[in-house]
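ok so I'm stuck.
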Amino acid sequence: METNLLAQQIGDQLRRRQMTLAVAESCTGGLLGDLITDIPGSSDYFLGGVLSYSNQVKHQLLGVQAATLETHGAVSAQCAAEMAQGVRRLVQSDVALSVTGIAGPGGGSDSKPKGLTYLHLSAPGCEQGQRFIWPGDRRANKVDSAMAALRLLLDYLEATEEAQEMRSQEKEDG
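replied:
not stuck anymore, here's the structure
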């Protein structure tokens, strides 16, 4: 199954690099954390997460600014960034992921349709977000969002490992 393979690859990378992970979830309702913890030994690198379905929890626990929620809304790139930064700070992890969106079937509008989802990765020297509009039903949109978050994390880990290897090679050559 692709999900287990992604989560296993992430776990292997985090464990080998002695890095820790945290998540802040809204529309996925804990699915991202569930996929991560399906891997035996995930407690070596997964510190935990915050299931922040309400704006109150986003603000009080994760530190999402009230102005962000009022101006951009809970389903926005700005909110996703503050969620990831907030959970990273809260649990003191090396890297953090966040997911916020409209899973459907209701809740959408012309400007924010059903399936609209924002992901964000926060790590030292890296803030990276992604935006998707998923076409599926509620469950499919949640799964697609969690899988995209795992891919975002794996892409980051592979890119930073490659950069680290290149720096090491340059030192050896220099």
